[in-house]
Design goal:
The protein is of the alpha/beta class. It has helices spanning about 20-30, 40-50, 50-60, 70-75, 90-100, 115-125, 145-155, 165-175, 190, 200-205, 210-215, 220-225, 225-245, and strands at about 5-10, 10-15, 35-40, 65, 105-110, 130-135, 155-160, 180-185. The protein binds uridine-5'-diphosphate (UDP). Uridine-5'-diphosphate binds near residues 111 and 164.
Length: about 240
């Protein structure tokens, strides 16, 4: 897979369809492979440029999937178009459904106590074939203790919602101690548990999900300034690549 990666300002994305990705995931779960999935958006691409260690963690992951229309647009502008956007949220849903189908063990970590509680309850109610071996909110003191708990309980799937780069740093540090599919899911539990709503389907289709989030959470405005900055850098990169041709 790594051969087919598309470089967007230093972050190397896998270029496959969502269907193909799901086939890989099914295979990984069936064979108890050790896999690390990251789902960068433009904001993460920019932070990876400023932090060599974070960039290395992202680029060394087994799957780097394009979460965010900005990545797809950027790839197109750079003349290296990608198949399609694959969101972290849809991946989370697919993994939970697959774990239910395959009767697997799952551990969920992160988000606020009431959110992780609601997420655990939803899994128990709607995905009864999952063996939820444990869960913990994302506001803990002793990281090593939590990691040890996860490793001892031997889940096949570990979902980590600590936000970036915290979740990726955590997974990278401990993943080699347990063969499982590990993924950082950001704020996905907030939506999955029903605590926060996702944008209406029509807005998702029109690529206006970011606008919905901005209206609902105006404090995200600062973070969203990353998008024009990102597009500006993409255009500069395009010019630089044309010069070097
Ligand atoms: N979070 C956490 N522990 C922390 C910091 C954040 O569990 O120390 C959680 C937070 O409650 C939220 C998620 O991490 O559920 C981050 O959400 P955000 O919206 O920032 O992530 P995004 O989806 O934008 O990547």
């Amino acid at each position: 897979m790594h051969k087919n990666r598309i470089n967007i300002l230093g972050t190397e994305f896998d270029n496959f369809t969502e269907k193909q990705f799901h086939l890989y995931l099914d295979n990984d779960l069936d064979f108890k492979a050790n896999k690390f999935i990251v789902t960068p958006n433009p904001e993460i691409v920019l932070s990876a440029r400023k932090d060599a260690n974070f960039s290395k963690i992202i680029n060394n992951a087994d799957y780097v999937i394009p979460d965010g229309i900005g990545i797809i647009k950027g790839a197109k502008i750079l003349g290296t178009p990608m198949h399609e956007r694959i969101t972290g949220f849809d991946t989370l849903k697919y993994l939970i459904e697959a774990a239910n189908r395959k009767l697997l063990k799952v551990y969920i970590l992160g988000s606020k106590p009431e959110v992780i509680e609601a997420t655990a309850n939803k899994i128990k109610k709607d995905y009864p074939q999952i063996d939820l071996v444990g869960y913990h909110d994302g506001y803990f003191k002793d990281e090593g203790e939590i990691a040890q708990e996860i490793i001892t309980k031997k889940p096949n799937l570990v979902l980590v919602a600590l936000g970036s780069p915290k979740q990726e740093i955590f997974i990278n540090k401990y993943k080699d101690q347990l063969n499982a599919v590990w993924i950082g899911v950001g704020g996905s539990f907030d939506v999955f548990s029903g605590t926060k709503k996702r944008a209406p389907k029509i807005m998702q289709k029109l690529n206006l999900e970011w606008f919905y989030r901005l209206v609902k959470e105006p404090t995200r405005f600062g973070r969203m300034l990353a998008i024009p900055k990102y597009l500006n850098m993409i255009n500069k990169e395009k010019k630089a690549r044309q010069k070097n041709k």
